[in-house]
């Protein structure tokens, strides 16, 4: 179970990225499945090549920034619908990821990674490692909270709320969308780089279906803590990520097949999206109204 | 301050749905001139404002603001010059964000946005003072999410956001039409006060002829994409609703541009 909490904390970095696009920008970004692997692949190949793991991890995150920028350009300058723009980047990244790794996977077990100190001292799966991962995630959360409350961050938030309004105050919504997508995929790829080191390898399928895990984390967390302000919302996302991994762990322990987990996740997200639309359950926060629920009228899910 | 020269706009040109929204419109507003705009539905009033704001680009003609040619600038690059309030109270604010966040966004109108804190203590004090002038008690609700406000409160807030950073031009498109009469009256009064206080060059579309006559220093009537009546000063002071209706009937019959209808 401690392993699940660890995983939940690391994957929370990805979930924060998903929160940034889905909730803040109101942009359903499917780049995630590809950019996560890009982050893992980039970090892994650099580590194998002898690059310092800290730099390799940062490079993984930077690759995600580029991936997000591409989706942003496809959508804004190319006029491509958000879902399609994300899918196009994701599919393109599949080939790029194979190129980066020069194959379908890169094992890391014999190399020094960010996690080697923890592994060598038998700290993985203990309170110490949880403390370290929690500190890392909270640091990212604090930076994200700060950013979203700067002048620029407020403009990004307003872009997801009312584009006409924020444009009328002199902000290019093209720029804010590209920025948001870049930052989001940067976080996702950073998470991919960490996961590759945590599991000891990068492989081409490590990102498949990840967007559902990200969404499930965001929805789960915000159902438990209705967020009113960014600071609380980002905390809820982290909590949601941990709960999601714990739930998966429990499902596995009661004997569910690991191969069924993606289906279970997808069904969970579908329920979270559909249930709030039934009038009896209107009071359960819906996918849209959970974003700072206080703001929204009861039917906001249909807006 | 604002100069439109022979501006035309046609939607869906060359298709069966072709709609001429504006035909060869020229209009020049002096600094601090407060012009009310009336005209029947589809006359082109909103299109005129959208062209000034840059939300639409003209097919032909030029648009100048304070001497600068802005004809081809997109809306967000004109925003430094232009404050806007829309008919829909939802349109002018970010409803999931707080009052103070909305005001911060508005205060940075047309300036570069960097990594400085959006809401600071100094700004908060300024916002409180400005909100107090609305006399709606909003100065005590800085952290309230805008979606929780009534239509009238939101429109008053939108008006403040559009004006307090002192744009060169203020565009109001039936911004009181969605409000109940007492709220409409309040927002109208706030509008006059803001225009006066900041000396804003203003174009205000209204469906209320009485209001169009009462407010402002100049009045234009539009019909089928043209300006058909244009009165200012003394002449506007003397004009009555009956005069406007008479002029309108004449235009409808004549079907062409005649700026001398009221004489
Ligand atoms: N975005 C648009 N697309 C197509 N036609 C439009 C659009 N905006 C306005 N029109 C048409 O242009 C004409 C003028 O509209 P508008 O400027 O909204 O008039 P008003 O505000 O005076 O009622 C109308 O015939 C309207 O149907
Ligand atoms: Mg109109």
TrEMBL record, chain A:
InterPro entries per record: ABC_transp_permease
Location within or outside the cell: Cell membrane
CDD domains recorded: TM_PBP1_branched-chain-AA_like
Top-level taxon of the source organism: Bacteria
Pfam families: BPD_transp_2
Keywords: Cell membrane, Membrane, Transmembrane, Transmembrane helix
Protein name in UniProt: ABC transporter permease
From TrEMBL, chain B:
Transmembrane segments: none
Lineage: Bacteria, Bacillati, Actinomycetota, Actinomycetes, Micrococcales
SMART domains membership: AAA
Example of a GO MF term: ATP binding
UniProt keyword annotation of Transmembrane present: no
Domain ABC transporter as annotated: residue spans: 2-249
Major subcellular site: membrane
Family matches, as Pfam families: ABC_tran
UniProt name for this protein: ATP-binding cassette domain-containing protein
Subcellular location: Cell membrane
Keywords: ATP-binding, Cell membrane, Membrane, Nucleotide-binding, Transport
Membrane topology: Peripheral membrane protein
UniProt KW Ligase keyword: no
UniProt cross-references to InterPro entries, sorted A to Z: AAA+_ATPase, ABC_transporter-like_ATP-bd, ABC_transporter-like_CS, ABC_transporter_ATP-bind, P-loop_NTPase
Superkingdom: Bacteria
């Amino acid at each position: 179970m401690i392993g699940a909490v660890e995983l939940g904390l690391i994957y929370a970095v990805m979930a924060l990225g998903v929160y940034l696009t889905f909730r803040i920008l109101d942009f359903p970004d499917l780049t995630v499945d590809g950019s996560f692997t890009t982050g893992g692949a980039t970090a892994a190949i650099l580590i194998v090549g002898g690059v310092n793991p800290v730099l390799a991890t940062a490079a993984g995150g930077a690759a995600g920034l580029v991936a997000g920028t591409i989706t942003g350009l496809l959508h804004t300058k190319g006029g491509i619908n958000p879902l399609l723009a994300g899918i196009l980047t994701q599919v393109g990244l599949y080939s790029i990821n194979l190129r980066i790794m020069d194959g379908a996977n890169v094992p890391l077990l014999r190399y020094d990674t960010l996690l080697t100190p923890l592994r060598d001292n038998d700290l993985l799966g203990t309170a110490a490692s949880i403390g370290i991962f929690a500190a890392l995630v909270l640091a990212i959360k604090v930076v994200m909270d700060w950013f979203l409350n700067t002048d620029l961050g407020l403009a990004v938030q307003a872009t997801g709320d009312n584009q006409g309004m924020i444009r009328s105050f002199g902000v290019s919504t093209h720029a804010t969308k590209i920025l948001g997508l870049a930052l989001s995929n940067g976080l996702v790829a950073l998470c991919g780089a960490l996961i590759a080191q945590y599991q000891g390898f990068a492989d081409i399928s490590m990102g498949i279906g990840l967007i559902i895990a990200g969404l499930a984390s965001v929805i789960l967390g915000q159902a438990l803590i209705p967020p009113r302000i960014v600071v609380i919302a980002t905390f809820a996302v982290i909590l949601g990520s941990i709960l999601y991994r714990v739930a998966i762990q429990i499902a596995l322990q009661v004997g569910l097949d690991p191969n069924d987990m993606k289906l279970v996740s997808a069904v969970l997200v579908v329920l979270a999206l559909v249930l709030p639309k039934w009038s009896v359950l209107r009071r359960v926060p819906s996918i849209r109204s959970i974003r700072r629920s206080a703001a929204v009228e009861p039917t906001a899910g249909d807006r | 301050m604002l100069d439109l020269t022979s501006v035309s706009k046609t939607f869906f040109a060359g298709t069966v749905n072709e709609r001429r929204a504006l035909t060869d419109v020229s209009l020049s507003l002096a600094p601090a001139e407060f012009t009310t705009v009336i005209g029947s539905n589809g006359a082109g009033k909103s299109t005129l404002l959208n062209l000034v704001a840059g939300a639409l680009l003209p097919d032909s003609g030029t648009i100048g603001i304070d001497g600068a040619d802005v004809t081809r600038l997109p809306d967000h690059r004109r925003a430094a010059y232009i404050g806007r309030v829309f008919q829909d109270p939802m349109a002018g604010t970010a409803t999931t964000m707080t009052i103070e966040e909305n005001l911060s966004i508005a205060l940075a109108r047309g300036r570069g946005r960097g990594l400085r804190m959006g809401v600071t203590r100094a700004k908060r004090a300024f916002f409180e003072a400005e909100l107090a002038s609305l006399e709606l008690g909003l100065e005590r609700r800085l952290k309230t999410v805008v979606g929780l406000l009534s239509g009238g409160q939101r429109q008053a807030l939108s008006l403040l956001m559009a004006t307090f950073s002192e744009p060169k031009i203020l565009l109001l498109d039936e911004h009181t039409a969605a409000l109940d009469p007492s709220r409409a009256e309040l927002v109208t009064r706030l509008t006059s006060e803001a225009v006066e206080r900041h000396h804003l060059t203003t174009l205000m579309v209204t469906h209320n002829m009485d209001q169009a006559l009462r407010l402002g220093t100049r009045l234009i009537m539009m019909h089928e994409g043209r300006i058909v009546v244009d009165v200012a000063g003394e002449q506007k002071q003397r004009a009555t609703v009956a005069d406007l209706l008479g002029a309108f009937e004449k235009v409808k019959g004549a079907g062409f541009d005649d700026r001398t209808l009221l004489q």
